[in-house]
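Q: Could you fold this chain for me?
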Amino acid sequence: MDDEAAAQAVKHVRTRRLGAVVVTPLSQLPLRSHTFPTMDGIKPLVDVVQCEDWVKPAVQQIFGRAVVCSSMELCEEVARHHGIDAISLDGDRVSRKGVITGGFQDPQRFVRLSLAEAIRAAEQKVHQAQQKLPDFDSQIETLTESVNGLHAERRSKQDQRDKVRAEMQRLAEQVKSSEETLSRCGREVTELREWRHRMEVLIRECEASIEAKRTERASRSLNGLTAAEERRLEELTGQLQELQTQEAQAQETLKALQTRLEEKQAQLESSLRPRLHLLELEVASTTQEETAERAEEAVQAQSRLEREHSEAANRFAKETQELQNLQERCEQSQKHREQLAAEEQRATDQAAQASVRLDQLTSEQTAQNGKKAEVDTKLQGLAAAPAEVEQCRQLPKGQLVQELSEATRRLQGFQHVNRKAVEQYENFSEQLVDLRARKEQIEAGEAAIAEAIQQIDAQKEESVHQTLRKVNGNFQQVFSEMVPGGVGQLHVARREGNSSTQESQEPGLGDIVGVRIEVSFTGQAQSFLSMNQLSGGQKTVVALSLIFAIQRLEPAPFYLLDEVDAALDASYRTALANLIARTAKTSQVILTTFRPETLEKADRCYRATSESPGKTAVALLAQLRRSLRTSRMFLDSVHTELYSDLGLLLLFIGGILGMHFLYYEVAMLKNPSNRSFGLQILVAVASSFFLGLGLFFLYAWAGLYS
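A: Sure. Below is the predicted structure, expressed as structure tokens.
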């Protein structure tokens, strides 16, 4: 509207880099009035354009010398006689200078308009996105709060998981300490039983000796003893007293060992094996009472010795049964230990999964508490049942000791076992399951991709065959129009000499190497000819038929043909003109030709002339080439003369220096005392240099001259 608006428009164009623009204020536009012809079908373009009053000067400046005509002929007449631009209703423009523009417009030319529309749409999207930003921010805050809450809950669940792990670790340590105590007590019981066995053997020997002496005393009277026998009796009496003393010491030692055994049993009672304490007390009490009875019976009578022997055998059987019971309880302890390890592993896995499944933490916690109660129950029930004790009493003592030692040895063999093997196995199993699932997904994706590729190949193959069939049909039709009675076919050329018509549906396109054309100008099947067997005019007919067949597949808005009928006969040119006339009904055809047969079918003809026939581009190019050739010859002659002059000059200088060299040689021969070898060598070198340089330039001159 004014200078300020023009400056803003120019600034906007430069900022956006929209190109070049010419801005003129409305106040500076000259208002010119034009006289338009008053004829039917003519209307000034200014009257057609609707705009506001303040914009009319600009509209008058741009569209002031143009009118709208109802037909193209009227446009040509107005432009020729009235000297103004005329525009038809179809958009064709006839300039006052005789230039005709219009026809098909490529939408791709209006790139800036499409870019402006895209920018406008993008700005609208940005505006809409900015309006939605507050909602998104509120949603983000809500989600952030929920995520923080989930993190807090996750931390609390992790703390609970750590507590459960600590409790499981404490229980495992208790089980381990109990097993160690049980093993140590088993070894001490074995030692005590061996010592008791030795004492029983010693007691039986003493009782046997006492009984023998009593029998001998009863069979003889003391009055009839000899001196030697009396001495022997005194010795035996002393030995008997010593044996009684040893028996008392053995009983004291047995009591001390019994006290030690009771202490060990009290230690075992404080662990996870309370039942073992009761069993050991029974064994200890039974052993003490029976030992006292056997000591008394050893002094009283031999008859009770046999009964004591049988009772000792029964006790040995009971102790063997007890040892077997202890072994069974060791095995049960090992089983409980394995169960506890499995429970610990499951608890660890559940705690690891708690971070991913936050919604299941409550139920998992309940399950953990139940499992903990179950573990406590199992720990409290580690003691053997009375029925199992009775079963152990029926086994021999030696077998119980052997089985207990074997169980202890087997337990020691498990000290180096990897306790994380089960956990690692489960982790690797989970990874194997995940990898297998991923493999299945990849295989499924590969199968889907292969299926999609097959479908695409099938569609591509079908499209190619369909296109070739259409082109083949169009070619047969066009060739029959160009050559009445003629027949033409397209064949697909394949590798290894295989070929088939377009109707074949063989899978795969990799064996197709091209298209072979066979035509018959007589219409007989035996007279089909290939392209190599045709003349120049016949090849032109086939080529034009193929071009029009392809263009019929996807018609274009216009066609530009340059002397395509130059090599055709008169009959073929007439057929070509008829074919172009039928094509011109749906598309615009522009043809350059010198043949009257083609011009007869044209609805509009234009003649192209040149204002300066002698100044064509070819003539100018030939003249320029001649000038360049002349200049090059002149330069070559100058170079030749220059090389020859330089060569002669250098030869002349070399000759002078050579003469000086000879002069110095003669002078030196006459007066050897004044010989100067340095000057002589310098003159010789300079003479040789100039002579060689002169010969080089002469050689170059000879090459240029030749």
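A (continued): The longest helix spans residues 111-219.
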